[in-house]
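Narrative progress, year one. The postdoctoral researcher (J.K.) led the effort to move from monomer predictions toward full complexes, under supervision of the PI. The following entry was the first complex the group processed end to end, covering 1136 residues in total.
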Amino acid sequence: MSRVPLPYSQKILELFRNPKNLGKLEDATVMAMAGSPACGDLIAIYLKVDDREVVEKATFESYGCAANIATASVLTEIVKGKRLPEVWRIGWKEVAKEVGGLPSVKLHCGILATGALRRAIRNFYRKRGLKPDWMPEGLTLEERQALEEEKLAEVLSKRLKLE
Amino acid sequence: MSRVPLPYSQKILELFRNPKNLGKLEDATVMAMAGSPACGDLIAIYLKVDDREVVEKATFESYGCAANIATASVLTEIVKGKRLPEVWRIGWKEVAKEVGGLPSVKLHCGILATGALRRAIRNFYRKRGLKPDWMPEGLTLEERQALEEEKLAEVLSKRLKLE
Amino acid sequence: MNVLMNVRELIKAHGDIEREVYLDFENSGPVLPEVIEAMLPYLRERGYGNPTITHKPGWEAYEAIMEASEEIAGYIKASSFEELHFTHSDTEANNIALLGGFSANRKLGRRVVISKIEPLSILFPAQMMRKNGVEVVEVPVNNEGFVLENELLKAVDDETVIVSIGLVNHEIGTIQPIKELVEVVKERNPCTLFHTDASDAYGRIPFDVRELGVDMATLCSYKIQGPRDIGALYVREGVKIDRILEGPLGTESLWPGLENVPGIVGFQMASRLAFENLHEKARRLKGFRDMLITEILEKIPETILNGPRGDRRAPDNVNISFLRCEGEALTIELSLRGVYVSSGSACTRRLLQPSHVLLAIGRKYEEAHGSVLMKLSSKHGFEDIQYVLKVLPQAVGRLRSISPF
Amino acid sequence: MNVLMNVRELIKAHGDIEREVYLDFENSGPVLPEVIEAMLPYLRERGYGNPTITHKPGWEAYEAIMEASEEIAGYIKASSFEELHFTHSDTEANNIALLGGFSANRKLGRRVVISKIEPLSILFPAQMMRKNGVEVVEVPVNNEGFVLENELLKAVDDETVIVSIGLVNHEIGTIQPIKELVEVVKERNPCTLFHTDASDAYGRIPFDVRELGVDMATLCSYKIQGPRDIGALYVREGVKIDRILEGPLGTESLWPGLENVPGIVGFQMASRLAFENLHEKARRLKGFRDMLITEILEKIPETILNGPRGDRRAPDNVNISFLRCEGEALTIELSLRGVYVSSGSACTRRLLQPSHVLLAIGRKYEEAHGSVLMKLSSKHGFEDIQYVLKVLPQAVGRLRSISPF
Ligand SMILES: Cc1ncc(COP(=O)(O)O)c(C=O)c1O
Ligand SMILES: Cc1ncc(COP(=O)(O)O)c(C=O)c1O
């Protein structure tokens, strides 16, 4: 008997209207996307990382709902000045808390932003041919969630075409 | 898909408020009842019949709903001055028409009054040991209906006691 | 249309009436002015959106629904607003409790137990279930309408999915000791769900769903002079219920479709008014109730009170059988004098049988046919009661003077 | 309650808005002042009785219901008021038509045929029936939403009990040639019942149930700015339908319980207003509709019209996909500017999938996610349209500027 939508918090609306760190980052060290237009949610995360693996700057672009935009905005704030191993440990729960709670049907938006961030970090190390020992081999919950969503949209799209 | 109650006609309400020929007829030649308290409808018809078998006067008493009272009132009006063979022929349809139509759930009330009337006529001839050829042996629709209603109430009452 | 002409003439025939006293709150009633005031903004300009849509008029609707849930949940001491589900009516809430409750929990068994004096919105769905193979047991009551506990105990078995017994009987006002009955049932079978139709209790006597221990409870708006077409079903957290209809889901998950926000807001206000000084109003109602009962039984011969007396009777309920008086005729006779009541007669009910409640407490058919139900509102005053007491003997007297027995 | 605080903040965040233009008549809307006026006496002092009880307030209720039945039956050219049955909503009417219609006629077979673009109040009950063993066939439509007649012909077999196809599609405004479709169906199987959800047609385009040849038709009140929680099901004389719920019967036999008299009276008045100068109002609406469509498609790049153009489209319906714009974000963006619309995006619908209607006419997922539905009312003026055209490019522009693609 799930009640349908818990409405957005004030903070989500505020960040939806005035997101921070918006736009492409021209001098980004690395970027990653999660979601797809077919999902209705697509997020791009850009990171500028310095030599000591500290995030100097993070920005994002989003095609998605207010929750998607707000969580991305919060995430790009949180990571600034942090070292990548620390950034990696930011989970979707923390992000959700930071925006004042997410309606349950919107949790996946919070997860998507975190998924994109982790992908960016993986890209960073992969480009450098590194495999830090604190980074798990297998995909984390957040990355799997992003992947599942992308796959679902693909499957649904294909099924549509077949009919 | 039966629609429930058609409301009473103006005429029924008028006759319910001011019924004609109400009360016991002290010098009645014959009387009869139909229905029962258990049915929620009981009607008594009194007839004063002269030597030529003409109804000089008819009155009624009723324990029942407005339709019951109104049809009895109309019936006692119609029969006045008519000879019994003619009175016998008055069917429930005629009575129903005379009161401006009866809601379908109330048809049995019109039938009950006519049933009581026919019973009174039968009583009249039975008392005199007569069997007029125009009078059917078997019970007419109206009389059967009255009987059925009485039986039903009896059966239901008994069932109630058994439980 | 013939029907329309008839009904217009019937209304006209009432002419100018000295006083009007409406006593049929069992079957509906006017909406209180404060309730209409509360509803108007939501009809006109506020919260007119669909609460599931993300725009201002939708959020306003959402706000209104949540506020009402929270307030109403509070009056019955529910643990959370999430336990309260609005429905279109008490009839619908009762149907959902039985049909949806059974369907979601059918693996618990195949039996449903109700009392013999439940309203038709319980009795008829139960009979429909019986046709579909569910075992339905109707537990008898004593001559005051109290459920026989030993019979209840016999009726509940390992296969009993739901028991439904009303908190206050709608016709004879019996206040059932639900807490005890719940204990009897749960001791016999802890899995059995207990539903109570609290339509006639809500806003008239205080109750606490957690203290009673019920799993589901039906609430009604129109019986406390709120708008029609709104009711609620309390469902204890964790209890599963299936929907009966399907369609787009709103914020309410038991019933698909657009929420009736003005109705919900009206229900909320009617509840607030009902629970204001509840005890004081109940005391006053009981005074009028007992005045009516005592005077009628004293002044009009051949009368019988139906249902219990005193604190075990709902404060607003007067139900008396007038022998040698057919109930429908009496309602009309009284209507023409401005007093509006209903009756358990077969004729008013448009069923072939008189009130099953009165038969269940041992009334004979002729006693049931002559019954009159009056439900008081806290808006009634001393003059209203006096007027009823003046008019009733006239009406009864007229009809008895016509009767052949 | 956290939820309540959130929603209050959301409402407050709107601040003072230059102008408010409500365009979400698909999902609800404010009740017209004349309708509220008509309802008020029935809330306050008239017809507050139960129409099945024999007293004045009951007879007044009865009169009101009969008058409304007669008037509304007239607007759709039903043969008699007895063919019109009030329900609590269009959702309920659709459920009764499918579930109750199937159950009463199950000896005719085991198949139900609907189109791929029916509303959820048809689609979901049909899916529920499928789970219960009924064969449900969904007939495809072309890229304007017109049902493919050859596919319909293939779908209907000797075992088909009901076909349900909407007269005007709720999302993309396609006016289905129902008369032709009825002929196709009845020629194939004369016993098959044809139901049409006319919720989006009633009061917007004229239709005649006898000319269409349908057996059942759903009407809706809130979509013509009447009260919520009232709808109607037209059922041609002779067609049998089972009730889904049980309880005390009122004057209406499809649904038990107390009739919502104020709601019925409001629905009657809303219908009267809608049918007054229907043609003239439709012409004006089409003007605004086409102005919106033309200007949006011209001025905003990467936009697609959903549904047909011209006379085959409902006069009040504008549905456009904005690529690179997610629909829920757009409804909020527009709400903050005082323009209230809905979207077929998965996010607004709170389902995992975007609008099944848009997918059925061949829109890609990303096109469906970016769709916006606007439904005009005859109360809208030129300034409203201009305001929408001013605000929409700003909102779309802002969101596109955020998008990564
Ligand atoms: C006196 C009385 N009691 C009860 C009812 C209805 O009872 P139930 O709730 O069992 O339908 C009516 C309805 O007509 C009535 O008039
Ligand atoms: C744009 C749009 N279309 C349609 C619907 C509902 O469609 P249905 O009638 O299929 O439930 C909604 C509801 O949220 C909507 O926002």
